[in-house]
């Protein structure tokens, strides 16, 4: 074990990580309101706001769409601040001497550069964040149990996210909005993971190398199902972001049918009729056939996710004990997905009311976060060795051994070493 | 002094000669079928700053149709004519932001012609131009209450280029750009007039934001008005 990594639970640190995750969720909600109201370009400049320093923009001018866009920028600045503090906190906690001061100085230098407020500097910083995040992630895998490199990844991500949002406005590029929305969701999952990894529960359950001594291991098929379901949700969020950033309103105005049919007519003549009959209140773009198919794909994938998460829950219920956290989380996950499907329908029935559409975005973010959390726990809690437990001799799945991945070693607080160890008897955790 | 009188008389006699080989195209645009019902612009009425400008519920104006089917806001133009823009010398077109709406909502200008965008409202708007033709630049500028007019111009022809205000998302207008002066927008009675069209055979096209397009072959004769009646149909 790296002696410099503190294994002690810190309430303030965990609380701060939780605050960062909650602030990120609030940011996603405000960002969702911006897109739902179609006001992403209501402030044409960045980082200033209509010529003012962002923090000095008069409240009397927070009118119409500016209220949402400006609020989004302020909350984003707050999340950036929280992430910076968290990154520094992790670094200071896990390093000593020259290493500590080098890291703190590097983070400070990056933040000071952000304060220069020149576009070329922002673009250069954004370009640097990608290798910075990649390096941080690799170092995190090489230093299992360490959180400081994940803090670096989070800082890189939040800088990139801020610059992406600014460039989307200054360059007037709708396409950047899709990346901005996707990165927001991934960043939220990261902040939730940091909150989990600093929690008392995690540190109590995963104190040694290998899987938890308190929880049964998660079988490979269930782990695969959980990971697959999570990736399906991520794909759905990307699809949803693509749909929203077409700025074309509802491509299909009815549900569960599509223009009165299961598969709508998307010929140019039919689409011309749809556009003729649709009277828009806001300045949305005309519908295209491709957008109609995007929505059909979104609906189909929603059914796929519902099936996958249902299977995940049923598998967890069958294999894991009633008190197993993954079983409980899988139930909550299934509940979220059911709510999400209803919100999707309601978004259409309400003619894409901004508050309903934003609630749909929020629930999507929570669904991905829960998927991320169960995936982290499941991957962490897998067996990789031949062990003897009670009178049973458990043979290692050779597949699992080959797949003893860097991801698994990362989530172990200690470096994995070959050893034999007793596991607690499985039967008390298994359902009858 | 005598020379000035002679020059004036010569100019007066010569003026008709300039249009001696041209004619006017006049006509009416009608709509067949029943258009969808216009929608209430609830966000406008509910807006704290803009709602007070409207004592009744404002509605969309996609199909402005008279009792006899007369269709307003249809853009009528000669197809296939290019490179004859007089926009640089033309008077600036004017678009206003009044009561949190664009006035007019549908109009047309020439390439190179100045378009003066006013803000007559006591609130901030932003003028976000979204062209689709290559060569016309997308732009987005804030316009404070009482600030100077924004002066815009466009280099490439384009039909129904969108203007919108992102601060007030119900505000949008459609500007068509032509590189010739032979176009008009039908009025509330459905009528239009395109003046001083050189004699010859042309394709006259009508485009409406929602009702689509239709066209007709016409021949303009010297000194004779060419009357045209065109219909668009609700599908």
Report on the structure:
Chain A has 432 residues and is mostly helical. Helix content of chain A is 65%, strand content 1%. Chain A contains 14 helices and two strands, in the order H-H-H-H-H-H-H-H-H-H-H-H-E-E-H-H. In chain A, helix 5 packs antiparallel against helix 6 (174-197) and helix 8 packs antiparallel against helix 12 (354-380). The longest helix of chain A is centred in the first third of the chain and has 31 residues, at 64-94. Chain A is flat and about 70 Å long. Chain B has helices at 2-18, 42-46; strands at residues 22-32, 75-79, 93-98, 101-103, 106-110, 115-119, 125-130, 139-143, 150-152, 158-164, 172-178, 183-185, 191-198, 200-208, 212-220, 226-233. Chain B has a five-stranded mixed sheet with strand order 5-11-10-7-8, with no helix packed on it. In chain B, strands 12-2-14-15 form a four-stranded antiparallel sheet, with no helix packed on it. A four-stranded mixed sheet of chain B has the order 4-3-6-9, with no helix packed on it.
């Amino acid at each position: 074990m790296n002696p410099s990594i503190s294994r002690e639970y810190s309430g303030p640190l965990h609380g701060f990580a939780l605050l960062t995750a909650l602030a990120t969720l609030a940011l996603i909600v405000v960002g969702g309101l911006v897109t739902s109201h179609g006001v992403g370009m209501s402030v044409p400049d960045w980082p200033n706001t209509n010529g003012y320093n962002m923090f000095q923009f008069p409240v009397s001018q927070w009118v119409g769409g500016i209220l949402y866009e400006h609020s989004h920028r302020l909350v984003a600045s707050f999340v950036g601040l929280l992430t910076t503090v968290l990154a520094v906190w992790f670094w200071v906690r896990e390093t000593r001497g020259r290493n500590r001061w080098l890291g703190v100085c590097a983070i400070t230098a990056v933040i000071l550069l952000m304060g220069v407020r020149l576009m070329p500097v922002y673009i250069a910083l954004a370009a640097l964040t990608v290798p910075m995040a990649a390096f941080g992630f690799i170092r995190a895998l090489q230093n299992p149990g360490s959180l400081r490199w994940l803090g670096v990844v989070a800082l890189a991500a939040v800088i990139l996210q801020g610059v992406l949002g600014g460039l989307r406005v200054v360059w007037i590029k709708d396409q950047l909005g899709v990346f901005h929305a996707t990165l927001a969701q991934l960043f939220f999952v990261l902040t939730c993971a940091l909150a989990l990894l600093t929690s008392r529960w995690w540190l109590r359950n995963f104190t040694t190398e290998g899987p938890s001594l308190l929880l049964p291991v998660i079988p490979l098929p269930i782990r695969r199902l959980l990971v697959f379901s999570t990736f399906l949700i991520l794909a759905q969020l990307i699809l949803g972001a693509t749909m929203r950033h077409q700025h074309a309103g509802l491509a299909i105005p009815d549900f569960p049918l599509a223009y009165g049919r299961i598969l709508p007519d998307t010929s140019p003549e039919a689409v011309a009729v749809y556009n003729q009959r649709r009277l828009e209140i806001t300045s949305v773009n005309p519908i295209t056939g491709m957008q109609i198919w995007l929505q059909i794909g979104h609906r189909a994938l929603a059914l796929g996710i519902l099936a996958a998460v249902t299977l995940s829950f049923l598998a967890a219920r069958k294999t894991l004990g009633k008190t197993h956290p993954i079983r409980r989380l899988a139930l909550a996950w299934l509940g979220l997905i059911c709510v999400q499907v209803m919100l999707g329908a309601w978004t259409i029935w309400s003619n894409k009311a901004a508050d309903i559409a934003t609630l749909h975005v929020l629930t999507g973010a929570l669904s991905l976060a829960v998927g991320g959390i169960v995936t982290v726990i499941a991957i962490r809690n897998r067996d990789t060795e031949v062990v003897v437990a009670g009178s049973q001799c458990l043979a290692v799945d050779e597949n699992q051994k080959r797949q003893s991945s860097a991801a698994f070693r990362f989530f172990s607080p200690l470096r994995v070493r070959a050893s034999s160890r007793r596991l607690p008897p499985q039967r008390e955790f298994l359902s009858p | 002094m005598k020379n000035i009188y002679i020059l004036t008389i010569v100019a007066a006699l010569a003026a008709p000669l300039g249009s001696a080989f041209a004619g006017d195209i006049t006509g009416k645009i009608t709509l067949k079928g029943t258009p969808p019902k216009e929608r209430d612009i609830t966000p406008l009425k509910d807006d704290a700053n803009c709602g007070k400008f409207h004592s009744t519920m404002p509605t969309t104006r996609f199909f402005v149709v008279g009792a006899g089917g007369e269709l307003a806001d249809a853009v009528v133009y000669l197809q296939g004519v290019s490179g004859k823009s007089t926009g640089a010398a033309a008077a600036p077109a004017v678009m206003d932001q009044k009561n949190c709406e664009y006035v007019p909502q549908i109009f047309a200008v020439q390439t190179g012609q100045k378009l003066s965008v006013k803000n007559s409202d006591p609130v901030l708007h932003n003028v976000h131009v979204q062209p689709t033709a290559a060569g016309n630049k997308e732009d987005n500028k804030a316009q404070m209450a009482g600030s100077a007019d924004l002066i815009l111009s466009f280099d490439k022809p384009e039909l129904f280029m969108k203007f919108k205000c992102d601060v007030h998302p119900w505000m949008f207008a459609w500007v068509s750009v032509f590189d010739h002066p032979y176009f008009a927008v039908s009025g509330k009675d459905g009528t239009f007039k395109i003046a001083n069209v050189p004699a010859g055979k042309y394709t006259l096209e009508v485009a409406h934001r929602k009702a689509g397009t239709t066209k007709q072959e016409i021949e303009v004769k010297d000194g004779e008005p060419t009357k045209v009646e065109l219909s668009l149909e609700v599908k």
